[in-house]
Amino acid sequence: MIKTTVRTLVAAALALLPLTAAVTTPAHAAEELSLHDAIEILPLASESREGYDRKKFRHWIDEDRDSCNTRAEVLLAEAITQPSVGAGCKLTGGTWFSYYDNTEVQDPSDLDIDHMVPLAESWDSGASQWTAERRRAFANDLGAERSLVAVTARSNRSKADQDPAEWMPSAPDARCTYLADWVGTKLRWSLTADQRERDTLRELAAGCEDTDAEYEHHQ
Prior knowledge:
This protein is of the alpha+beta class. It is built from eight helices and eight strands; from the N terminus they run αβααβββββααβαααβ. The strands form four sheets. Strands 1-8 form a two-stranded antiparallel ribbon. The protein has a two-stranded antiparallel sheet with strand order 2-3. The chain has a two-stranded antiparallel ribbon with strand order 4-5. A hairpin with a 5-residue loop joins strand 2 (about 85) and strand 3. About 30% of the residues are buried.
């Protein structure tokens, strides 16, 4: 998928400014690294699930109060064919593509919204130290394309709370994208990886030479 980065837009804008204009660096510029380089800058730390409770991540909220909660917003954003939106943001019809298992879906009830980095994994990797507000922001992150992804319920439930050392998408052509999305999400939220996870990411990324990881730090 071809994406236009914030860095590219900023560079184009600066090119139109007078040479005497002061150049400032955007506070939230997106980063783009090769997948291999992105894996190497993941903070390394041991993991602990002590104290985890899914209820500590308030999710599927209606942030903009338009009657569509986070789940519905993701479904609307990722639809190949847009569904009809009824009262209370009830979605009917539409078409989606679940890239984990290379499956086209026509009934939104057959889809789950997957947290790219599962809530439990984020807890293990640093979210245990966050405020309730930051955990809520993570659980409803509509600011990055792959923080949340619509996939078949069976693939999401197969993944559960596992990291790439334990689970990868069944579709072979999805794997490099998945690794980039996983690493980009961890970097966006400054989450850590343990040694086993990093070693597995390195191994799995061996065949992803042309894959980049994009992320923008969430403040």
